[in-house]
Design goal:
66 residues; mainly beta; 1 helix
């Protein structure tokens, strides 16, 4: 499956949902966000948010520092 993640086409395994994507990308349980085709996906709905070939995703991780 080809997904556009942060502006780059990436070959991903057969991911069914945003929850699968989060595990594949090893996103932390908090401090990260996923946007799917221009819409922010709430973490509570990751498992109910299907992925399709060609979807556009923006994935961000918060970075602390000071």
């Amino acid at each position: 499956m080809i997904l556009r993640i942060n502006g780059e086409d990436r070959e991903a395994p057969a991911l069914a949902t945003v929850a699968d994507l989060a595990r594949w990308l090893e996103l932390p349980g908090f401090g990260s966000a996923v946007e799917l085709n221009g819409q922010v996906v709430r973490k509570a709905t990751y498992a109910d948010s299907p992925l399709r070939e060609g979807d556009r995703l923006e994935v961000v991780k918060l970075v602390g520092g000071g």
